[in-house]
Design a protein that fits this description.
With 100 residues, the chain is an all-alpha fold. Helix content is 54%, strand content 0%. The chain is elongated, with a radius of gyration of 21 Å. The termini are far apart. This is Gibberellin regulated protein. It comes from Melia azedarach (Chinaberry tree).
């Protein structure tokens, strides 16, 4: 009886591990085609976005965080947030917009 319980437990554990591995692979692929989702060059995009900022280091740091989360940076030095809604919706703990 103990061997049967151990066998069932090991089967359930292996199915759980397989399910977690499959879910992790699905997160990193494009749902429509199964290709890996392309990532943008956050450093270059944020450098362009923050080039006219009065506080460039702070701007690049905030932009880099937002870019890493959203995989998107709006074009230009300000505005154009409709291009990247995720970037525009991130806020600080104080409720202010996080992304420059």
């Amino acid at each position: 009886m103990a061997i049967f319980k151990a066998l069932i437990a090991s089967i359930l554990l292996s199915l759980l591990v397989l399910h977690l591995v499959e879910a992790d692979q699905m997160v990193h692929t494009d749902k429509a085609y199964g290709y890996p989702t392309p990532t943008i060059d956050c450093r270059g995009a944020c450098r362009a976005r923050c080039r006219l900022s009065s506080r460039p280091h702070l701007c690049k740091r905030a932009c880099g965080t937002c870019c890493a989360r959203c995989n998107c940076v709006p074009p230009g030095t300000s505005g154009n947030t409709e291009v990247c809604p995720c970037y525009a919706s991130l806020t600080t703990h104080g409720g202010r917009l996080k992304c420059p």
